[in-house]
Write a sequence for this structure.
DNA sequence: ATCAACTCGTTGCGCATGCAACCAATATGC
DNA sequence: GCATATTGGTTGCATGCGCAACGAGTTGAT
């Protein structure tokens, strides 16, 4: 069962021979690398949809997607959930507001934070975008069985939870 | 079994109610999103190791890691394998060469491409880095059983292979 | 009530990134 | 053989990013 990545790299079978004292990172099975590569592949592909068709950056799409699913949420929530820097979210929010796709109303109980929500126009875009995103995902995961898909999500869940714990408190969202 | 991500977002159980005509992307089970978040978490954590301790950027680390595993490879190979833009790799290679960590020799058979390899100093850094990277990975995946780890890699394999096919030819590496 | 510590969000700055144009070398068509 | 297309790699440019500093609001201690 030949796989793609091997075929790219392994012109000869020229993998460095392993000496006991010199551990080698095998990129093909090194999860941080593999996960990043896979994430890039999916990001790039998905980004085409919402960039070309709707003029949204990745952070902007995430804000819209979050507010599409949760009626309202703060910038901080969105940043933490998506492991984005707060300045990234701030700028995405600013541009979406300027385009009239989202609105902010400051929370009476804590006037530092502002609750964000989609405008009617914003929701229109979301409702155009969501089916495309779901269709993309479906194509993307179609190589896996239903069971495998669920399994994958649960593995990713557990890894993400664990990774968040490993990350020192402040480091993730700046 | 409460999970981390839910606890961040689900203050109330305020998920938008689903109407038949308005599909909603559930971010918690939307794989492109989840994979990117997980990749960010691991990248950020790993990056601390090779940035702070060895002054390497992510692309630079990838070049070093590739040449540590495969004796020599071209910039193009490295870019394609890691789904990086060729200009990103070009600059990483330039800086590594300037620091004396890698060397290039142009291929006699095709003088457009240059084979890259670690210098002695480069290999020293690799050999210091590799065990740390492996130790990090071990901690990272320690929430999974051995079987689950293998399973995950194989799922990622299949998804990556499939995603590479979906990506229009030129789009991935510019 | 006051002051320090903390939090949400914004912004100036420097740097890295992707894009597109480019050069040199090779491959392809005629 | 010659012109054209393609490929590996570099670079100028504009954009986006993370960082760190900041303002405004809140919390907690005294």
């Amino acid at each position: 069962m030949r796989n793609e990545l091997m075929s790219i790299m392994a012109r000869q079978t020229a993998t460095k021979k392993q000496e006991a004292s010199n551990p080698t990172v095998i990129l093909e099975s090194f999860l941080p690398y593999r996960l990043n590569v896979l994430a890039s592949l999916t990001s790039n592909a998905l980004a085409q949809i919402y960039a070309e068709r709707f003029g949204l950056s990745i952070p902007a799409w995430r804000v819209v997607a979050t507010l599409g699913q949760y009626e309202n949420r703060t910038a901080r929530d969105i940043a933490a959930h998506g492991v984005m820097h707060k300045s990234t979210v701030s700028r995405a929010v600013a541009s979406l507001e300027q385009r009239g796709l989202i609105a902010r109303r400051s929370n009476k109980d804590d006037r530092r934070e502002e609750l964000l929500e989609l405008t009617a126009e914003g929701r229109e875009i979301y409702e155009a975008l969501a089916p495309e995103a779901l269709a993309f995902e479906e194509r993307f995961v179609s190589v896996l069985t239903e069971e495998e898909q669920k399994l994958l999500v649960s593995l990713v869940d557990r890894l993400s939870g664990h990774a968040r714990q490993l990350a020192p408190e402040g480091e993730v969202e700046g």
